[in-house]
C-alpha cells in the first residue's frame, strides 16, 4: 500500500488531470525558456482551472518557438520586453538567472503584471529592499509579487512547523540541509557565475536558510559565527577564490535567544556512499543526501514523582522534530517526533528511554476545509500556484504566503553569510526605476 501510494502520487503529479479553463483564467507568460518553468508552472497549471500558460519569451526566437511547441504554449515573443508589454498577459513567471530577477520583476510590475519570481528574489539585500519597498509594489492595488519559496506552501512543511510550535520547550538547536549529487549541475551553469549572482548560498543553500528562518521566526536575526565554503574548482586563472563562487557551504549561526543554527548546502555532493566501501574509493562518486530540517528543544520537566523516604524523581523530555525531504515532499516525506525521556534523582540519571512517532502530511488535516481543495498528489509547486492565484483573485487561500518583508530578511541573511565567509556580495543591478 505504501509503495502503491508513492507510485500513485508520483504518477498523478507528473501526469495531472487536465482542468477545463474558466473564462477569467489568469494568463501567465514565461520569461525565459527555462529548464525549471515546466516543473514550477507549466505542469501545475494543467490541473488549475484558473491558469493558462499563454506565452513564452526567449532571447533566441527559434528556441522560444521550439519550447512553445514542446509545452503547448500559444504565443511566442522574441524579447523579454515584448512579453512584458503583451496586453493579453496577466502575470509573469521570472525564471531567469538570479542576477536578472530584480530588473525583470520591476519591469513586469511596471507593466501592471502580477509576478512569480524565482528564489532567491534578488542578487542581494540592496536589490530586495528596493524591489519590495518600491512604490509600484507597495501601492494599495499593486500587482501581486511572490518569491517562489514553494516548499512553504505544502501541508508537510506547515504540519512540521505546527509540531515545532506546539512543543512547550525552548528551541536549542536547529539544522537544515539541501544537497544535489555531483553531476547534475554543470560547471558552466548559471549557478556558478558570479556576474549572474550564482553560488550555492544563492541556490540550494537558500532553502535551508529559509527553513531555519521559518523555524526560529522571521524576527529572529541569525548572526553567523562560522561559515565555511568550498569554492568551485575551475577558473580561467586557476584560482577558485577569485571566482567568488561557493560550490558548497556550511554555516553556523547564533540567535539573540542563544539558539544554535546550522545549515549546509552542496551543489556537487560526492563521497561517503555506499558506506561499506573505503572512503578513498567513493571520494569522487556522486552521492545522495536527503534534505532535512530538524529542531531539538531544551529538556522540559514534565512530571515530578514524589516517593516515600526517597528523593523525588524528575521526568524530563527532550524532543527532536525532523522533517525528511521538505523540498520534494509529495513523492515521500516523513516527520519524526523523537522524545528522549530521562528520570533524574537529584543529580543522577535513574533511567532513560526514547519514543519516536512518525507522521506524514500529504494534505491538510481531515476536517480542515483546505483538505477538500488540496490533493495528496499536489506538488509544492501546485500548492504555490494555488495560493498565487488565490492572491491575484482576492480569494481567502490557505493562509500561507511569503511577503516582501520576509523576502528582504532572507536576502539580508544571505548577505550576512557571504560577508562572514569572506565572499563578496553578489553584484547589484544597475537597472533603475
Ligand atoms: N523553484 C525551484 O525548484 C527551482 C528554481 N530555480 C531557479 O530558477 C531560475 C532559473 O533556473 P533554471 O531554469 O535552472 O535556469 P536555466 O539555465 O534554464 O536559465 C533560465 C533562463 O535564463 C535565461 N538567461 C538570460 N540571460 C542569461 C544568461 N546570461 N545566461 C544564461 N541564461 C540566461 C535563459 O533564457 P532564454 O531562454 O531567453 O535563453 C534561460 O532560459 C534560477 O533563479 C533558479 O534559482 C531553478 C531550479 C529549481
Ligand atoms: O529546487 C532546486 O533544486 C535544484 C536547484 O539547483 C534549484 O535551483 C533549486 O531551486
Automatic annotation (TrEMBL):
Show where the Gfo/Idh/MocA-like oxidoreductase N-terminal domain sits: 26-132
GO molecular-function terms, A-Z? D-xylose 1-dehydrogenase (NADP+) activity; nucleotide binding
UniProt KW keywords? Oxidoreductase
Task: Name the catalysed reactions.
Answer: D-xylose + NADP(+) = D-xylono-1,5-lactone + NADPH + H(+)
Q: What class of enzyme is it?
A: oxidoreductase
Q: Does the keyword RNA-binding apply?
A: no
Q: Which SUPFAM superfamilies match?
A: Glyceraldehyde-3-phosphate dehydrogenase-like, C-terminal domain, NAD(P)-binding Rossmann-fold domains
User: EC number(s) on record?
Assistant: 1.1.1.179
Q: Which InterPro entries match?
A: Gfo/Idh/MocA-like_OxRdtase_N, Gfo/Idh/MocA_domain, NAD(P)-bd_dom_sf
Q: Which family does it belong to?
A: Belongs to the Gfo/Idh/MocA family.
What this protein is called in its record is D-xylose 1-dehydrogenase (NADP(+), D-xylono-1,5-lactone-forming)
- Organism whose genome encodes this protein: Penicillium canariense
Amino acid at each position: 500500500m505504501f509503495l502503491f501510494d508513492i507510485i500513485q502520487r508520483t504518477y498523478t503529479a507528473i501526469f495531472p488531470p487536465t482542468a477545463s479553463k474558466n473564462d477569467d483564467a489568469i494568463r501567465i507568460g514565461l520569461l525565459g525558456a527555462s529548464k525549471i518553468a515546466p516543473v514550477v508552472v507549466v505542469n501545475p497549471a494543467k490541473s488549475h482551472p484558473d491558469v493558462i500558460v499563454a506565452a513564452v519569451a526567449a532571447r533566441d526566437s527559434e528556441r522560444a518557438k521550439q519550447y512553445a511547441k514542446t509545452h503547448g504554449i500559444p504565443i511566442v515573443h522574441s524579447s523579454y520586453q515584448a512579453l512584458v508589454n503583451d496586453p493579453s498577459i496577466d502575470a509573469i513567471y521570472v525564471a531567469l538567472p538570479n542576477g536578472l530577477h530584480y530588473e525583470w520583476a520591476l519591469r513586469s510590475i511596471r507593466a501592471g503584471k502580477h509576478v512569480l519570481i524565482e528564489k532567491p528574489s534578488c542578487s542581494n539585500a540592496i536589490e530586495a529592499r528596493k524591489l519590495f519597498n518600491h512604490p509600484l509594489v507597495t501601492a494599495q492595488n499593486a500587482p501581486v509579487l511572490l518569491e517562489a519559496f514553494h516548499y512553504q506552501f505544502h501541508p508537510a512543511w506547515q504540519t512540521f512547523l505546527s509540531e515545532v510550535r506546539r512543543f512547550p520547550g525552548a528551541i536549542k538547536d536547529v539544522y537544515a540541509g539541501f544537497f544535489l549529487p555531483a553531476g547534475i549541475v554543470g560547471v558552466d551553469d548559471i549557478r556558478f557565475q558570479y556576474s549572474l549572482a550564482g553560488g550555492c548560498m544563492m541556490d540550494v543553500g537558500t532553502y535551508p536558510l529559509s527553513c531555519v528562518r521559518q523555524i526560529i521566526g522571521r524576527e529572529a536575526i541569525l548572526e553567523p559565527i562560522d561559515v565555511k565554503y568550498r569554492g568551485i574548482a575551475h577558473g580561467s586563472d586557476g584560482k577558485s577564490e577569485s571566482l567568488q563562487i561557493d560550490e558548497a557551504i556550511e554555516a553556523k549561526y547564533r540567535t539573540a535567544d542563544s539558539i544554535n543554527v546550522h545549515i549546509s548546502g552542496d551543489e556537487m555532493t560526492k563521497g561517503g556512499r555506499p558506506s561499506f566501501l573505503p572512503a578513498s574509493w567513493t571520494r569522487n562518486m556522486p552521492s545522495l543526501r536527503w534534505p532535512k530540517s530538524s529542531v531539538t528543544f531544551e529538556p522540559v520537566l514534565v512530571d515530578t514523582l514524589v516517593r516515600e523516604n526517597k528523593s523525588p524523581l524528575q521526568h524530563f523530555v527532550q524532543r527532536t522534530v525532523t522533517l525528511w525531504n521538505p523540498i520534494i515532499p509529495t513523492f515521500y516525506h516523513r516527520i519524526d517526533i523523537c522524545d528522549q525521556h530521562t528520570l533524574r534523582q537529584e543529580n543522577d540519571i535513574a533511567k532513560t528511554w526514547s519514543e519516536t512517532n512518525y507522521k506524514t502530511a500529504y494534505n491538510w488535516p481531515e476536517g480542515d476545509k483546505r483538505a477538500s481543495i488540496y490533493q495528496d498528489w499536489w506538488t509544492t509547486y501546485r500548492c504555490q500556484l494555488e495560493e498565487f492565484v488565490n492572491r491575484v483573485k482576492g480569494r481567502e487561500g490557505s493562509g500561507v504566503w511569503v511577503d516582501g518583508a520576509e523576502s528582504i530578511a532572507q536576502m539580508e541573511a544571505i548577505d550576512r553569510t557571504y560577508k562572514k565567509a569572506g565572499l563578496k556580495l553578489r553584484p547589484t543591478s544597475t537597472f533603475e526605476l
